[in-house]
Specification:
This protein has 311 residues and is an alpha/beta fold. The radius of gyration is 21 Å and the shape is elongated.
Length: 311
């Protein structure tokens, strides 16, 4: 199992999911296992927790008989659950967690290029053995408009156009951008030409984020998993989602809002405003500062009937 990292909004996740002895849970983004191990403590010997992660380095053998580890993409949640329930390895689901941040292990994997702070190749695939495009492939093959789009939409990068233009120019001169250092150098050069004062944030932050999202189709995964998660929950079960990017949070917020306003809503929103980290947690764990937690509860049939009657 991977090294346990410091889980974000742990107290709040446990408060909203409220795991009880004998209940079953799914952690769609197992990562370092921080949230999962706390949930396992509370569901005791009669409960089960399914930990899903696309990174095979995360999913290793566990001695905990109540923990079922699955190496897969959470966008396949329904099929994952079907396989486990058909084998009678797990029953009805009381809660599902999605923590959309990278684990410390992934950020620290130098050979995969997730972080601009390390050297290495621009890979950025969660599963490095898959046949999907790497970040280096994208920088080599996407045209200027395509690069601009992902930098702008996924990274909210203000200098998306000149950065995309420079990457294409380097390619035309026979210089493919394949390493962390080469991409950082390009972005820093663009920033130095456009701004006189030095940025407090590493200029390449948004570009790296955008590439990671594109490589792993992260926004598409969220769109796919939300309806599946709601379907799998038992009535009264809860789905908790932690996002770290405004685009992610927008997808989640809009989906929950639309589902809650249906003629026969399947869910009710538990917290209309996202839960954010306390000042204390923000100081102790800087990555928690951008985290937003949204929680919904699957409606009982009687609740759906009452909502329809009220309207």
């Amino acid at each position: 199992m991977a090294t346990i990292h410091e889980p974000v909004l742990l107290r709040e996740v446990l408060q909203y999911l409220d795991p009880q002895p004998g209940q079953n849970f799914i952690d769609c983004t197992f990562g370092g296992g921080g949230h999962s191990l706390e949930i396992l403590e509370r569901i005791k010997s009669d409960g089960k927790l399914v930990g899903i992660d696309l990174d095979p380095n995360v999913i290793q053998t566990s001695s905990n008989k109540n923990l079922i580890l699955v190496n897969d993409n959470y966008r396949n949640l329904k099929n994952i659950y079907k396989d486990l329930s058909d084998d009678k390895r797990i029953g009805e689901i009381s809660g599902i967690l999605l923590d959309l941040g990278l684990s410390s292990d992934q950020l620290g994997a130098r050979s995969r290029g997730f972080s601009f702070q390390d050297s290495g190749t621009l890979d950025m695939r969660y599963n490095a053995s898959s046949d999907q495009m790497t970040a280096a492939d994208i920088l080599k093959k996407y045209n200027q408009k395509e690069l601009f789009k992902i930098f702008k939409e996924y990274g909210e990068e203000p200098l998306a156009w000149p950065i995309a233009k420079k990457i294409v120019s380097e390619r035309e001169n026979g210089n493919n951008i394949e390493t962390v250092e080469s991409l950082v150098e390009i972005v820093e050069g663009i920033y130095n030409r456009h701004y006189h004062s030095k940025s407090k944030k590493q200029p390449a932050t948004r570009v790296f984020q955008a590439l990671r999202i594109e490589v792993n189709d992260e926004f598409g995964n969220i769109h796919k998993v939300l309806p599946q998660a709601i379907e799998l929950l038992k009535p009264g079960g809860r789905l908790a989602v932690i996002s770290f990017h405004s685009g992610e949070d927008r997808i989640i917020k809009n989906y929950f809002r639309d589902e809650s306003k249906q003629d026969k809503p399947r869910i009710k929103i538990i917290n209309k405003k996202p839960v954010i980290a306390s000042d204390k947690e923000g100081q102790e764990n800087p990555r928690s500062r951008s985290a937003k937690l949204r929680v919904i509860e699957k409606a009982f049939i009687s609740d759906v009937g009452r909502e329809k009657h009220k309207n």
